């Protein structure tokens, strides 16, 4: 539904921004469409929009919930390249939580 609305908005001349893309990525993530979320992330970057920490947290959450741990490493590297800190407390909290669950420590 979100993608349909996005297409309609674009046809009406609406210009998306980082918030729009992050909301779409979040909608895909909630629907377990990690590949589509990553496609939107790439489209966002190709459109010269810089992802923010919230964008990365949404993607990290999507990867965690769908056991895409290798992609989290790529996202952390991308964050560094973008000048963002993957050691941001919000990001680290997500990574630690997943690691603990992944290793069955809880």
Overview of this protein structure:
The protein is mainly α and 106 residues long. Helices cover 72% and strands 0% of the residues. It is globular and about 45 Å long.
Give a short summary of the structure.
The chain is mainly α. It has helices at 2-11, 18-30, 34-46, 53-65, 69-81, 89-102.
- End-to-end span in angstroms? 36 Å
Share of helix, binned: over 70%
Shape: globular
Structural class: mainly alpha
Q: What does the average pLDDT come to?
A: 85
Q: If you compute it from the alpha carbons, what radius of gyration comes out, rounded to the nearest whole angstrom?
A: 14 Å
What are its keywords?
106 residues; mainly alpha; 6 helices; 0% strand; globular
Topology summary:
Blueprint: H1 2-11, H2 18-30, H3 34-46, H4 53-65, H5 69-81, H6 89-102
Helix pairs in contact: 2-3, 2-4, 3-4, 4-5, 4-6
């Amino acid at each position: 539904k979100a993608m349909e609305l996005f297409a309609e908005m674009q046809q009406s001349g609406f210009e998306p921004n980082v918030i729009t893309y992050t909301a779409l990525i979040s909608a895909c993530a909630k629907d377990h469409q990690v590949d589509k979320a990553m496609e939107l992330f790439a489209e966002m970057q190709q459109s010269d929009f810089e992802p923010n920490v919230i964008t990365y947290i949404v993607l990290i959450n999507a990867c965690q919930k769908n056991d895409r741990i290798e992609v989290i490493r790529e996202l952390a590297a991308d964050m560094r390249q973008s000048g963002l800190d993957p050691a941001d407390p919000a990001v680290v909290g997500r990574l630690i939580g997943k690691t603990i669950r992944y290793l069955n420590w809880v």
